[in-house]
Write a structure and sequence with these properties.
It contains nine helices and 15 strands. 33% of the residues lie in helices and 25% in strands. It is an alpha/beta fold. The protein is globular. Strands 1-4-3-2-5-8-7 form a seven-stranded mixed β-sheet, covered by helices on one side. Strands 13-12-11-14-15 form a five-stranded mixed β-sheet, with helices on both faces. The termini are far apart.
């Protein structure tokens, strides 16, 4: 491949404090972090060079170019990677681990990938049988969950429900401090398809809290028979056209939460960006479900550091 394309580099600390390089290599994005031993972000680099954009032979070259160009001052540090890099479209396919399991088991089963004579660790994804008896799979979110478990430190880590919103939202169940299992809602993907490939949302949009909350309430009637209300309310003059996207968002998130409520407990811990946290928190509170929000990027960094620490501890010291 040619030279690595542009990306965004952020410095937030002294390079000398870095103890680990972490890579979250998703389907459509790449993110490398220089972390302290405790998971504090020292520097970060992001680009759109996701796993789906690279050929199988390009991963090693791309990683080395980013190391040389963006992390030359700490390029020799240990590297831990997660996400689609370990999938069938990634650098090397890493088998899923079966739930239930805890962070120590996840750390001990990280795969080793050689790059220019140096070993790198790849966090495996997870698989489970969900409450409906169907198979479930995830890659990447396990690192955020590990970070949450490390931060929880027994406070709420024994029994909890975690919600990780995204294209494919995960609802994970924590039991006795371990990942018991999870369910997946394709809410984000549905939302994207509907606003881009249907007639439900037309013209420029303006975020509106009232329209979003109205959508959450409308979700009580389900989704299939309610989706067209997004368009119908506009035609009837009962919803401003520029607020239809907010209404649709509330409708889909509300329906997801109502369905998840049947299989998970309370309170719900939402792990996401500030934007998604705000949406899910609003919907959860509208439905009288207690919740707490956590920064997804912060917990991913904490998870990388925690898994690396567990993997490098003497065997007898691992909990």
């Amino acid at each position: 491949m040619g030279s690595a394309g542009p990306g965004q580099r952020t410095h937030v600390g002294q390079p000398s404090r870095a103890a680990l390089l972490a890579v979250d290599w998703g389907t459509s994005s790449f993110r490398m972090l220089a972390l302290s031993a405790s998971g504090e972000v020292i520097a970060s680099f992001t680009s759109d060079a996701g796993a789906s954009t690279l050929a199988a032979t390009d991963f090693a070259d791309y990683l080395q170019q980013i190391l040389d160009r963006e992390f030359a001052d700490c390029a020799s540090l240990p590297i831990v990677m997660c996400g689609m890099i370990g999938s069938s479209i990634g650098w090397r396919e890493v088998p899923y681990m079966e739930c239930p399991l805890g962070p120590a088991e996840l750390a001990s089963d990280m795969a080793t990938l050689m790059h220019n004579g140096r070993p790198m660790r790849v966090v495996p994804g997870l698989r489970c049988v969900n409450p409906r008896g169907e198979p479930g799979f995830l890659r990447g979110e396990e690192t955020q969950i590990a970070g949450w478990l490390q931060k929880a430190d027994g406070y709420a880590g024994n029994e909890a429900t975690l919600c990780l919103p995204g294209t494919h939202t995960k609802w994970a169940r924590i039991h006795e401090g371990r990942i018991e299992g999870f369910s997946t809602a394709v809410t984000g993907e549905m939302f994207s398809c509907l606003i881009n490939q249907s007639i439900l949302v037309q013209g420029p949009q303006v975020a509106d809290q009232e329209a979003f909350t109205r959508g959450v309430h409308s979700s009580e009637q389900g989704v299939a028979m309610q989706l067209f209300s997004t368009r119908a309310l506009v035609l009837a003059g009962e919803l401003a056209p520029e607020n239809s996207q907010s209404y649709l968002s509330g409708l889909l998130i509300g329906a997801e939460i109502r369905e998840a409520r049947r299989i998970v407990g309370e309170p719900v811990h939402v792990i996401a960006s500030s934007t998604l946290c705000a949406l899910y928190q609003s919907a959860l509170r509208t439905l009288d479900i207690p919740c707490e929000c956590h920064d997804g990027a912060e917990l991913a960094a904490a998870g990388f550091a925690y898994l690396h620490e567990l993997a490098t501890q003497p065997e007898e010291a691992v909990p």
